[in-house]
Every structure is written in structure tokens, then in C-alpha cells.
Amino acid sequence: MTDYALDADTAGAARLVSFGLHPKLLPARDAEYGELLRRYREEPAFARLADAVATGLGLVVLEVSARAGMAVAAAEDSVFAVRMGDYARRATADSADRFLHGLAHLAVAAMAFPRPADLADDGYIGRISVNGVDAFVRQACRRLEERAQEQGENTDPASDSPGLEASWRVYARRSATGATKDARRLAGSTTGIIAKAVAFLADSGFLQRTGDDSGGTYRTTARYQLQVRDTAGSAAMAELLELGIVPVSDGSASLLPPDGTDGLELAADAGLPFHESGGA
Amino acid sequence: MRFRLLSVRPPNVSVVTEHAPAIIPTPAPGPAADEGLARRLRALACTAPLHDLDVRKANLAGEYGRYAMAEVALAAIDLITLNMDFDTGADHDQVVARLMPRIAAQGPQRSAAEHERVARWVLENLINVGSVDRGFRAVYGTFTPDGAYVRRDYDFKLVEEVHGPGGVVCLRTTDEAVNVLVGALDTDVTSAQIAAEVKLEVLISRGRLADAQLAAEQARYRTVQYAETLRRTLEATRRNVRAVDWLRTVPDMITEALDHVADRYRHENAILTNIRRARDEAEEADHKRRAAELVDIVKDCIRRHTQLQSRLLEAGPLFRAEQDRQAFAPATAHAGLDLYGQLVAPLLPLAVEQAGRVTDAFFAHGAGLRTPGAVRLGDLIDLLLTPPAPREHLGAEMPEPDLIATPDDSRFSTGQLDAARELLDLPADAPRRLSGLLADARRRDAELPYLVALLAVHAASPPVGTAYRQGERRLLFGVDDGTELDDPEFGGADLIVGTAMLDAAGMAADRTEAA
């Protein structure tokens, strides 16, 4: 390989990475993108070069395929990473807001891929709506509230340590929606926070808007599945494990009716029998 | 020599007596006693926003002292509760409109605008619009089992805003509000309903209608509350089949609810028959009116039950459709991460401080990437120094239109039209027959009668409104009085053609008044 050819290859590899940085760009719509993807898959030397360029820029290559294109994610301290403070101004000052914004992203993913199999199946396309995500989290919070009541727990937090308030309670007491003077969504409400999350994900090329019903409906893209499966899910899991919580899963969905003896915990007299495996 | 005392030295030893600490009896609350206290404190807190309204009305600009805000607030909660249907809540403006009569009665001499302001103020305060949670918080204290005193926050809402159909925001009353309103704290929905029912029947049989109405209204609140519980369950079913036990719990619940509906339906029809009789037999006008109101309430109860029943019947097919969609999808060979079971579910019971670390990690890795803008200083300077492009006010040059002269194919000339107008320029007090006009026209020009006839026929249906609007002072009209036209060229009615004077100024004045 001459120096000149190497230069051209490097330019091509960098070009491919730059295509990956346009998350909404589809390989099928751009001939040059498609050609570079083909080279990546057929020429190991070119693939190594593209990977090196990505790594140097602080990017992690998730997958390179015709369906997802050059799917890259930002490494933790990369210039491309999104910081919570830039994402939502209030979140820096208020830990409850910070948590709600984070939870919104997690809940969107959980709603988009409700079963473990959905996350693993490359062909699966999840569908969510803003109000649906809110209702789903509220339902889970209500279940916890009911359980706390059954056990006679006093869940009202101590006034001087708001950080010890149970997470579900923070969500439950935030209003779901609210009328505003200019007929926009109330930004501080839970649907406002979820709407912000899905709009941001749509801008990242992770969701595609399909309609306006139920506060806005969206479907997932291959990139979102990769991002949740390969980086976000495991990062959150690692953090949870660090807190000493080890959720065990046998790979089946966790929300199932009991078959009698599998150790699933069923709370008596609840309006809705939620069954959870493992956990704290 | 005298020493002046410059400063007073503090005593080297000071003796301070201290009150012996009073022997505080250990609260020895026992979880049960304290829990009961906490529950009552919470119930008490729910009424605080209502009292607060009357306290704070003094701070409002203007004289609002005459309005009983707590009463308006309770009325508002009533209205919202009664207008809550299955899917929607109460409409904001409708609640305000229905509150107006009560507020107007409290301050009859004040303007309607003020009444509306009061209604909106009360409603906004019930929602607590100013706070980010749109809710209320009360602080109360309890003893922990080891005797330490802990202050706790109790957060609650009275009226909450929910999604209605078509993206509108609707109002619903919370359980707390319904409990405050009905005054039955900590009671079981079903048993309270049965109690209310029995009470109603007894009251009616004794003819005590005033109490009967109260009981019927309470029964209706209970019905609404029951429906609300069912609505939530069905909603959860639609969302996630696996979250619901369709083997036992839900079928049992549906059966129970259907029994309940059937039972209530029978009861209420019996009550309806009784009250109708009471209404028809009642002598006193007040009794008659109360009975009539009661009939309406019970009818509304029956309507709600019918609605509930239809929802219950839909539940089964809905489950089967969802099951087809979800359960029979082909399973994949390898398992993935269970986002709900392994992340969301273990996360929610954690303290928000800890849970925040997990959600932060998810956000940092799951929100995607953003490409930062990179600016070259040279470009930036060029950009800043470039004068704004002058706007083209005149736009693009218009092409010269290519005009083609159209042949003049008018049947009548301008001279003929002038002649016809002159003929028809009749004095207002001397209308003429068309036959005479035609004869006159024929003398001047052979073609002219056609034009005159045309104008006369046109005048048979004069555009009076248009003439008024355009401020015209006179209008040509033609009237058919049944006389036949005797003319060699024309047939039909021999119209009477005349001129009507229009009072344009008066008409314009009328219009202004009407507007």
C-alpha cells in the first residue's frame, strides 16, 4: 500500500465515521455511505482503520451494518457525549429533576423493549407513546405505594433529608400534566419530561415519530436497540450492582403471572398483581 | 484618688440555676397509636388548602371578603367529581361556568368578570398552579420505634390535571379530595356503598327526602370512585397483559363488578320507582323539587352503571387481542437484558439519591451523541463583518403582459344604455307601466325596448340589501299586479316600474346599533 493510497483510505475511513455521526442518515439513501459500509465489511484493513479513527475521536463502534449504518456511541469523556447539565438546565440544581430526566430515558427504553427477548431480537421494532410511558411508570409507582401501605410503612420522607425519599414517590407526586397559558406542555410535568426525552432521542436518530396520538407516538430504530442493549443497559446495571443490588434474571420476562412455585412474590389483595423476580 | 470604674468585670463565677428537666413521659407511642395519629394528621392536612383559601383571600387585590372561598372550593370538588367519566375528567371551563351561579349569589352586585376571576382563582389554588409538583405539602411529626422524633413531608393533591381526548387537559379529583369531600376517611369502597344504599332506602320509606338526596349523592360519589378503580385496572391490562393476573384476580374482579352493577341496577330502579311515586304524591313544592332532583341523580347513577358494564364486557376481548399480539410472538434463542425487571423495578424503591446514580449512568450512555459546533475564527470574523444582504423591496421585475384586444361583442352601445337609464329615471311618486315605457323606447330606437325590458325584469327582484349596504339613495323596482302585457314583441306581465327612495342614513344607524 503506497502512502498515497493510505491517505485515501484514511480519508474514506474518517468519512465513514463522519457518516456515523449523522444518526438520521440512512445508508440506503446515500450511495457513498453504502459503498464505504461495503468496504468496511469486505476489507479488514479498512475496517481496522475506521475503528481506529472512531476510537481516536472518542467513539465506540456498536455495529456496522446495512440496517444501522455506522452505529457509534460516544465514550464517557468524549466531546460528543451529552451532559445532563446541557440537556436540562434545572437538572443541575435539583436532584429530583435530575433523577426524573434520567428515569424518563430509562422508562422509554423499558417501554420500547418490554421483554428481554425484544431487546435481543434484531428485527424487533418497539412502539411507544409519551402518555403510555407515563402511565406505565405511574402504574409501577402506584403498585409500590400500595405495597408500602399494606406493610404499614410510612413513606413520607423526613423533611431534612430529601435525598432519602423513595424514588417512586418523587415520580408519583410530580403531576402528570398541566395547563399552561400558551397551551404548550408543562415542562416540569412528567409527560413534559418524557416528551423532552423522546424528542431528544428522535433527534439522536433513535426514535422515529409516527403520530400525534397519546402525546406523540414513536417507533424505535436499530440504533436505539443497539445503544440500549450494548452500552446504556449494562452501564446502568453496573451502577446498580455497585449499590449492592443484584437483580437476578433467568432471561424470561419479569412481569408474569405466577405458575405456583417459582418463588415469585405476589402481594395479596392488590388491585393488580405485579410479580417481580429477585431484586431488593 | 478615686478610681473610676471603667468597665464592669464579669464575675468569675456565675451561678445559674437550671430547671430540672421535666420528666417527659416516654411517648411510648406504639406504632399503631402513632400510625392512627399520622393518618388523622394527613386527613386534617387535606382540608388545609380549603381553609387557606379563606385566609389568603384578604391578600388579593380587591374586595373579595364577601366570597366564601372554602364553600366555592368544595362546590368545585363536587362538580369535578360528578363530571369525571371513565376516560376523561371534567372540563376546566365547564367547571368555572357551573361555579358562577354560586359565586354570583355570594356577591350579586359585583361584575361577572370578578365572579369568573374568583372561580378561576379557587380552581387554580386547588390545583396549586404555582408549585412545580402542582400539589400540596404538609409537615407532621412521628416517633420512630426507638423514640426519636422525625418530621415528615406529606404530599398530596386535591385536583389534578390529566390528559383528555384530543390532547386537552382535564381535571380529576384525587382520592384524597373525594375522601375529604365525602367525609368518610379510611373506608372500604364497597361497604360504604352498601351503607349508603341502605340508608337511602330507609330514608325514602320514611319520607325524609332531604336526607335521601344527601345519601343518593354520596352513593354516586362512591360509584364514581369504584369506576375509577376499575378504569385504572383496565388501563393497566391494555398496557401490559403480563402485569395482570388473568387466571384468577381479574376475572374475579370482573365478575364481582358485574354482580355489583346488576345489583345496583336493580336497587336503583326500585329507588327510582319509589321516588317517582314520592314526587308525584308530594304536596309540598319543596318536597316535589327535591324528589325531582333525586330522580335525576339516580338516573345519572344508572347511566354510570351502564357505562361501567359495557367497559367490563369489553375487557375480555381486549385481553385476548393483547395476548395474541404479545404472547404468541416467536421467542428468540438468546436472552437479553430485562429492562423493567432488572432496572426499573429494583430502582424505584431506592432512595432518590441512589437511584439517581443509576439513571445518570443510563442517561450518559443512552441519550446518544451530539456533534459540537466547531467554528474557525476566520469564518466567524468574516461572518460577523459581512454586511447584511440588502433586501429586495421591489422583488423581481414583472414581465410585460402580452395584451390581445378582445372584439367588442356587446349587444347594446353605451348610448343605448344611457337612453334606457334616462327613460327609467322615474320620479318616486309616479311609477309607470312597462307597456308605456316600451312604447316610448320604440319611438327612439328599435333595439332600445329589449334593453328596457331587460332592466325592468331585473328590477322585479331588486337587490334591496346590497343597495342599502352600498348606501344608495334610490332603487328601481318592478311589481307584477296581474295585468298582462300587450306588446308585439314581448309577452308576460305588464310590470309597474317605479323608483323607491331608500333611507340609507337611517339604515346605517340601525346597523351600528345592532352591532
Provide a compact summary of the structure.
The complex is a heterodimer of chains A (280) and B (515). Chain A is mainly α and 280 residues long.
Q: In words, what does this structure look like?
A:
The complex is a heterodimer of chains A (about 280) and B (about 525). Chain A has a 3-stranded antiparallel β-sheet. Chain A has a two-stranded antiparallel sheet with strand order 1-2. Chain A contains 11 helices and 7 strands. With about 280 residues, chain A is mostly helical. Chain A folds into 2 domains: about 70 residues, no CATH class; about 160 residues, no CATH class. Helices cover about 55% and strands about 10% of the residues of chain B. A 3-stranded antiparallel β-sheet of chain B has the order 5-7-6. Chain B has a two-stranded antiparallel sheet with strand order 1-2. Classes of the chains: A mainly alpha (about 280), B mainly alpha (about 525).
Secondary structure topology:
The complex is a heterodimer of chains A (280) and B (515).
Chain A: H1 3-20, H2 31-42, H3 44-56, E1 59-65, E2 69-74, H4 84-87, H5 89-93, H6 95-112, H7 116-120, E3 127-129, H8 130-150, H9 167-173, H10 190-203, E4 207-211, E5 217-220, H11 222-242, E6 265-266, E7 275-276
Antiparallel strand pairs in A: 1-2, 3-5, 4-5, 6-7
Chain B: H1 30-56, H2 69-83, H3 92-106, H4 112-127, E1 136-143, E2 149-156, E3 159-163, E4 169-173, H5 175-182, H6 189-205, H7 209-239, H8 249-281, H9 285-327, H10 339-347, H11 352-366, H12 377-385, H13 414-424, E5 432-433, H14 434-444, H15 448-459, H16 464-469, E6 474-479, E7 496-501, H17 504-514
Antiparallel strand pairs in B: 1-2, 3-4, 5-7, 6-7
Helix pairs in contact in B: 1-2, 2-3, 2-4, 3-4, 6-7, 6-8, 7-9, 8-9, 13-15, 14-15
